[in-house]
Amino acid sequence: MAAAASASAAAISTLPGASFPLHISARPQPARVSALPRTRASPPTWRLSVGSPRARSVRCLAAGGGGGLAPEMRATLDKVVGSHKVVLFMKGTKDFPQCGFSHTVVQILRSLDVPFETLDVLANEALRQGLKEYSSWPTFPQLYIDGEFFGGCDITVEAYKSGELQETLEKAMCS
Amino acid sequence: MMGSRATSAVLSRAARMRQKLLSSLEASALDTEDVSYQHAGHTAVKENTNETHFNIRVISPKFEGQSLVKRHRMVYDLLTDELNSGLHAISIVAKTSKESGS
């Protein structure tokens, strides 16, 4: 019911320096995501405001088209990818992925018991377009580890099979 | 002259993609598989369910010494026009001939 709404209302924060409000719920993060009971639908941990006038202006900025990434968007994305060890930009949410490739990466991260944040690019077109340029990567999902672009679905799957993903994550968690 | 400009309009996306990848990457092997049918009904491909999703396997000497991310970016860069005109997703296997064991 109102769990998601109240959590975000109570704990909305704006990233310092971010050009538009990026609402992050301060719901205590479980150390192990996969230890959560299956039935509990966790609210999206990132909330991008779509209703505020400021968010609308960002959409216009990003819709400028072709002229490169708006500096505000770049600054915001720098903050986002730097604020958590593991950030996944995906279609849909952890609990309801809207695309098979996004689903695959969520499953992999869950199986490795790493805490990770997700952002739904379908909920914010400016974010979706901005990220394509920011990452020089035209598709989703996009996985960031320790502030660095790690790869899309194919690369993540391959790195998971080879053990490289686990290694990179371990390093990130210890850093 | 090949007159490729004149024919490109009628080539399928798969054929255009093959042309671009083969010539730019000097690929020694290239498989493209149209898997769009697996994604029919997908929210993003409502209007056009043709040639939206591909599996690509490419072997190129240009991948030598390049990370996977760089290799995939090379492929994506070559296919920018396609990605901007309805190609939705590609699954990429990018190897050097040494790695492919052939």
Task: Summarize the structure in words.
Chain A: Belongs to the glutaredoxin family. CGFS subfamily. The complex is a heterodimer of chains A (175) and B (102). Chain A has helices at 3-11, 53-63, 71-82, 100-111, 125-134, 153-162, 164-174, and strands at 22-24, 46-48, 86-90, 117-120, 142-145, 148-151. With 175 residues, chain A is of the alpha+beta class. In chain A, strands 4-3-5-6 form a 4-stranded mixed β-sheet, with helices on both faces. Chain A has a two-stranded antiparallel ribbon with strand order 1-2. Chain A starts with a helix and ends with a helix. With 102 residues, chain B is α+β, with helices and mostly antiparallel strands. Chain B has a single domain (27-100), classed as GMP Synthetase, Chain A, domain 3 (2-Layer Sandwich). Chain B has helices at 4-8, 13-25, 68-78, 80-83, 97-100, and strands at residues 29-34, 53-59, 89-95. Chain B has a 3-stranded mixed β-sheet with strand order 1-2-3. Chain B is globular. The chains are: A alpha+beta (175), B alpha+beta (102).
Quick recap:
Chain B: Pfam families: BolA (PF01722). The complex is a heterodimer of chains A (175) and B (102). In chain A, 43% of the residues lie in helices and 13% in strands.
